[in-house]
C-alpha cells in the first residue's frame, strides 16, 4: 500500500502515489503536488526515492538550502568561491564564476535546470566531483535524506540555509516565473503572462507555490539549526546584505575552511565579496547573454537583489494580510522574520 501523503519519508513508489496527491495547476510554470505538507513539481517528487536511496553524503559536503528566490544565486556564488579559493583564487581572471552562472558551479541535487538529465545521471555526476562538494536544494528539511539530517560530529555533512522576508520572496518569485516560463512550453508561458499579482498573491498566501508554504519551509530549517547548530547554519538575507564580509567569514568557518590571518590581511575576503556581488555577477558577459539548454536566460537570476522592494509592488493592505498569516503560522515558535525597516 502506498505511503500516505503526509508520511515523513518519501514513498518508495512515488510514481504510483503521485496521482492521488492534491494537484495545483494555477501556479506556473509547472503543475505542483502536495506531499508532506509542501507543494512541489511532480518531476521533483518522482525523483525523491532515488535521492534518498543513492545519495551518499561525504563529511566535507555542504548543502545549500533555500526557499526559491531567497538569495539562492548569491549564496551559491559565495559558498563556491569560499570553498574553492585555493584552487580558484577570487582575483583570477579565469575564475569559474567569471565563465559560468552560479547555478552551473553549484547544481541542485533534486533537479536539472537544463532538463537534460534525470536524477540518476545527476547523482552519478555528483559522485565524480572532488571534495569538498557544494550542492544545493529547494527541498524542505523534512524531505532531505536521513543521511543528511541525522549525522552528527565530524562525520556529518553540513547544511547552510538562507531565508528571506516572505514579501520580498514573493515579489522576486513572481518576476522570476514570468521570465523563465517560456522554457517550459507555450502553455506554461501563456499562463505566466496572464498570471497577475493578485492571483499570485492568493496562491502564495495559501502556500500553493513551489516548495510552499514559504514560512513553514523556513521554520523547519530554523528549528533544525537550533537542534543541530554544528550541522545547520541559518542565514538571513537581509543581514547578509548589511555585512557580507562577516557572512563570508561565518560561512567559511562553518564549512570547515576558515580564513587564515594572512588571507584576511591579504584581502581575500573582500575579493570574494566583490566577485560575488550582484553588480559584479550581473555585469559578467556569461550572465548578460548566456543561458542553459532549456532556454532559461542567465540574466533571469539577477534582478535587484535588495531588501524591501516589496513596497514598490504590494499595497499596505496586502502586506498586512501576509504579515498576519505568517505571524499566526509562526506563533509560539520563537522565530520571526527580519523586518528590513527595523534593522
Automatic annotation (TrEMBL):
GO molecular-function terms, A-Z: sulfotransferase activity
Sulfotransferase domain segment(s): 59-334
Protein name: Sulfotransferase
Keywords tagged on the record: Transferase
Enzyme Commission designation: 2.8.2.-
Alphabetized SUPFAM superfamilies for the sequence: P-loop containing nucleoside triphosphate hydrolases
Pfam family, any one: Sulfotransfer_1
InterPro entries (alphabetical): P-loop_NTPase (IPR027417), Sulfotransferase_dom (IPR000863)
Gene3D superfamilies the UniProt entry points to: P-loop containing nucleotide triphosphate hydrolases
UniProt similarity note: Belongs to the sulfotransferase 1 family.
Principal EC category: transferase
Amino acid at each position: 500500500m502506498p505511503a500516505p501523503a503526509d508520511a515523513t519519508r518519501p514513498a518508495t513508489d512515488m510514481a504510483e502515489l503521485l496521482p492521488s496527491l492534491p494537484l495545483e495547476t494555477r501556479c506556473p510554470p509547472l503543475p505542483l503536488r502536495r506531499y508532506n505538507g509542501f507543494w512541489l513539481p511532480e518531476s521533483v517528487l518522482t525523483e525523491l526515492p532515488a535521492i534518498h536511496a543513492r545519495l551518499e553524503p561525504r563529511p566535507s559536503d555542504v548543502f545549500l538550502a533555500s526557499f526559491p528566490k531567497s538569495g539562492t544565486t548569491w549564496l551559491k556564488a559565495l559558498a563556491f568561491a569560499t570553498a574553492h579559493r585555493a584552487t580558484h583564487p577570487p582575483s583570477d581572471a579565469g575564475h569559474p564564476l567569471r565563465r559560468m552562472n552560479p547555478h552551473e558551479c553549484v547544481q541542485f541535487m533534486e533537479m536539472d535546470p537544463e532538463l537534460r538529465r534525470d536524477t540518476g545521471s545527476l547523482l552519478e555526476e555528483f559522485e565524480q566531483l572532488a571534495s569538498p562538494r557544494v550542492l544545493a536544494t529547494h527541498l524542505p528539511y523534512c524531505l532531505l535524506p536521513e543521511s543528511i539530517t541525522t549525522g552528527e560530529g565530524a562525520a556529518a555533512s553540513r547544511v547552510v540555509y538562507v531565508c528571506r522576508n516572505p514579501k520580498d520572496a514573493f515579489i522576486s518569485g513572481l518576476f522570476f516565473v514570468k521570465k523563465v516560463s517560456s522554457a517550459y512550453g507555450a502553455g506554461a508561458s501563456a499562463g505566466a503572462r496572464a498570471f497577475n499579482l493578485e492571483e499570485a498573491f492568493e496562491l502564495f498566501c495559501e502556500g500553493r507555490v513551489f516548495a510552499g508554504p514559504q514560512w513553514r519551509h523556513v521554520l523547519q530549517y530554523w528549528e533544525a539549526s537550533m537542534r543541530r547548530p554544528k550541522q545547520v547554519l541559518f542565514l538571513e538575507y537581509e543581514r547578509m546584505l548589511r555585512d557580507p564580509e562577516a557572512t563570508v567569514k561565518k560561512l567559511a568557518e562553518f564549512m570547515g575552511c576558515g580564513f587564515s590571518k594572512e588571507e584576511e590581511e591579504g584581502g581575500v575576503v573582500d575579493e570574494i565579496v566583490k566577485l560575488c556581488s550582484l553588480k559584479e555577477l550581473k555585469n559578467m558577459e556569461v550572465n548578460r547573454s548566456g543561458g542553459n539548454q532549456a532556454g532559461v536566460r542567465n540574466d533571469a537570476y539577477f534582478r535587484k537583489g535588495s531588501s524591501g522592494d516589496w513596497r514598490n509592488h504590494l499595497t499596505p493592505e496586502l502586506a498586512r494580510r501576509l504579515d498576519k498569516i505568517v505571524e499566526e503560522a509562526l506563533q509560539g515558535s520563537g522565530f520571526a522574520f527580519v523586518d528590513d525597516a527595523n534593522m
